[in-house]
Amino acid sequence: MFGTLTGCSVVLAVASLIVSEIIMNSKKKHYPEGAKIKKPAPVVILLAAAGVFALPLLVTIAYKLIKLVTGDKDTFVSTMKLLAQGFGFSFGIFIFTIIFSLPLGLIVAAGKMSKIKTIAAFFKAYVSILRGTPLMLQLLLVYFGPYYLFGITTGNIQIGPFNYRFIASIIGFSLNYAAYFAEIFRGGIQSMPKGQYEAAQVLGFSKSQTYFKIILPQVVKRVLPSVGNEVITLVKDTSLAQVLAVSEMFTQASALASAQVSVMPFIVAGLFYYVMNFIIELLLGLIEKSMNYYS
């Protein structure tokens, strides 16, 4: 009964927000773009109603979290330890993927724009295949491919503290995201006016100086929002490493949810993901703001 009431409250809260947004959008049509608009009384009432309707869900989640913390402290501590350990793997995959995929994406973008047709065709095929097949399939191919194609046993491969499962995850993610970053970079580079290159040539800049000192800084500014979107997606995609039995956060949350017969490990894992994405959004916002030279 209470679950049904909570579900209905959530539906009403979402409906209130949608209706308030529709009213505000219709009001904005009569004002110039960017103008500050005072919220009309119906919108204020609908927003307040949405907050009231959302209360049952928030109270339920808060109650469950408090019960989890106070009910069995040992279970809570062990849950947090395992999820933190899983978060460490997820964060590691994320960081290494960013480190390798961004420069690789630039190389792929340059290769795709190459005037040598063979090189351009190779990189076009690379982007097409990596973007056109599931990331999960690519991870499996990176892990099992060396054995089935070349007879190389990967089980004993170890680089420092990392086994081949973790390494294969980084390789798979890096190759996949490099294809997406390459298209973003290519679009940014090709959007630059031809006059920029001509002006640089007149001023005596070499091709490499033109690219690294004039074109690339402007491209970074233009593509930052798109790159940021992919980075945020990457945080959530790290959960796909579970197909290689990497003990990342979602894998740990699934195991804990089954053992405890509770959905709370998933909620806590969701909070971990959200906080990480929230921090990334703040950092990207600061970087983007610092690059608004003329505002």
Question: What is the element layout, followed by pairings?
Answer:
Layout: H1 2-28, H2 41-71, H3 73-112, H4 117-132, H5 135-150, E1 158-159, E2 162-163, H6 164-190, H7 194-202, H8 207-237, H9 249-260, H10 264-290
Antiparallel strand pairs: 1-2
Helix pairs in contact: 1-2, 2-3, 3-4, 3-6, 3-9, 3-10, 4-6, 5-6, 6-8, 7-8, 8-10, 9-10
Give a written overview of the molecule.
The chain has 295 residues and is mainly α. It folds into two domains: 2-71; 73-290, MetI-like (MetI-like fold, Orthogonal Bundle), CATH 1.10.3720.10. Helix content is 80%, strand content 1%. The chain contains ten helices and two strands. The chain has a two-stranded antiparallel sheet. It is flat. The mean pLDDT is 80.
Largest sheet: 2 strands, antiparallel
The strands making up the biggest β-sheet line up spatially as 1-2
- Percentage of residues in strands: under 5%
Average per-residue pLDDT, rounded, comes to 80
Might you state the CATH topology name of the largest domain? MetI-like fold
Annotated CATH homologous superfamily of the largest domain:
MetI-like
Class of secondary structure makeup: mainly alpha
Count of separate DSSP helical elements: 10
Going by CATH, the architecture of the largest domain would be Orthogonal Bundle
Whole-angstrom Rg: 25 Å
The dominant shape is flat
Looking at how many chains there are and whether they match, the oligomeric state comes to single chain
Secondary-structure element order, N to C: HHHHHEEHHHHH
Question: What is the class of the largest domain in the CATH system?
Answer: Mainly Alpha
Low-confidence stretches: none
Termini Cα gap: 54 Å
